Amino acid sequence: MEENKLKELLSTNLLPLAFIGDSVHTLFVRDYILKSGNLKLENYHNKSSQYCKASSQAKALEKIIPLLNEDESEIVRRARNAKPKHQAKNASSADYSYATAFEALIGYLYITENKDRLDEILKISIL
After folding, report:
1. Angle at alpha carbon of residue 25, lines to 20 and 29, rounded to 5°
2. Catalytic: which of 22, 31, 71, 119?
3. Which of 36, 83, 103, 120 gives 21 a disulfide partner, CB atoms 3.0 to 4.6 angstroms apart?
4. Is 22 a catalytic residue?
5. Which residues fall within 8 angstroms of residue 14, CB to CB, at 6 or more apart?
6. Are the C-beta atoms of residues 116 and 48 closer than 8 Å to each other?
7. What is the DSSP letter of 65?
8. DSSP label at 86?
9. Whole-Å CA distances, 59 to 8, 28, 45, 53, 94
């Protein structure tokens, strides 16, 4: 990503990072589930949903917070405090905020093409 566009994105609303981060995380989880065993189609969805729901993403973020560098911590802090236009149906307000922050971090690592760090964080998130 062009440096000026990245700076502009990071200086404004971080919810677009959460948007792309959600997709990246979901794809990672689905790939992990697919490679972990031969399941019926509905079981793939159910197992994937366990990792992708807001409460699970919030727990994943709590695990990785101590491992974050200064820039990553700032992304998480700002995204956690962002005010989305809607609330999740099946999540507490706190879990939803932490899940949004987790997704924004994943989106940030993806957009900045920090593939090694992205892979490290994603692996920790499913342990």
Report:
1. 150
2. 22
3. 103
4. yes
5. 75, 78, 79, 82, 104, 108
6. no
7. G
8. S
9. 29, 17, 20, 10, 11
| 102 class by beta-carbon count within 10 Å (0-12 exposed, 13-18 middle, 19+ buried) | buried
CA pair distance 76, 107, nearest whole angstrom: 11
The CA–CA distances, whole Å, from 120 to 23, 76, 91, 117 equal 17, 16, 26, 5
Q: Give the pLDDT confidence of 67-94 residue by residue, as tens digits.
A: 999 989 999 999 998 776 666 677 788 8
**DSSP character at residue 67:** G
Give me Rg for the CA atoms of the chain: 14
Using CA atoms, how far apart are residues 1 and 121, in angstroms rounded to an integer? 21
- Is the whole-model pTM more than 0.90? no
